[in-house]
Design a protein that fits this description.
mainly beta, 14-stranded parallel β-sheet, 1 helix, 14 strands, disordered N terminus, DUF3060 domain-containing protein, DUF3060, signal
Length: 174
């Protein structure tokens, strides 16, 4: 895909807006091809928008939103992580709420709830999601051809799993 087509796609995805957790007071990375390191303090909200940005986030974030195409984001801890758009990669540590949507996202995270159950909702097409379950958790997978693998951390129960759609694979590792 040409650079101009990617920018048009990213602009269209930005106009559609993210589907969930962000607020007006977030730390934003917007644009194409930006490389940035961010440090979150407890309560910070981070938004990554546009296309092909590479962002490394350290510290405990309240929420992280990755929206657009072909971003590469690493993180340590977030209350919630939302990944939407196309062909994004988000890899990191612990999250309490995870939302993955649209198509071809690659996500690696540990689900850990502070209270109650952690939750992961995967919807859309051809995502690859790798989870470690470290507390009571709910895992919902809908859409088409999504591959979700999970492993339980020592002492953690298996997640409650519900699935719909076609061709989805939800498998336990180890």
């Amino acid at each position: 895909m040409s650079g101009l087509k990617r920018m048009v796609l990213a602009a269209g995805l930005l106009a559609a807006g993210p589907i969930g957790f962000a607020s007006a007071e977030e730390l934003k990375i917007e644009g194409v091809g930006i490389s940035r390191d961010l440090v979150c303090a407890e309560g910070d909200e981070v938004g990554v928008y546009g296309a092909e940005n590479e962002v490394r986030i350290t510290g405990p974030c309240r929420s992280i939103v990755v929206h657009g195409s072909k971003h590469k984001v690493t993180f340590e801890t977030a209350g919630s992580l939302e990944v939407s758009g196309s062909e994004n990669s988000a890899k990191g540590g612990e999250v309490e709420k995870l939302a993955v949507s649209v198509d071809q996202q690659t996500v690696e995270a540990t689900l850990r709830a502070r209270n109650g159950a952690a939750e992961a909702v995967i919807a859309g097409v051809e995502h690859k999601v790798t989870l470690t379950v470290a507390s009571a958790s709910r895992l919902t997978v809908n859409g088409v051809n999504n591959a979700v693998s999970w492993a339980a951390a020592k002492g953690a129960p298996a997640p409650a799993v519900s699935s719909g759609g076609a061709g989805n694979q939800v498998t336990r590792r180890g």
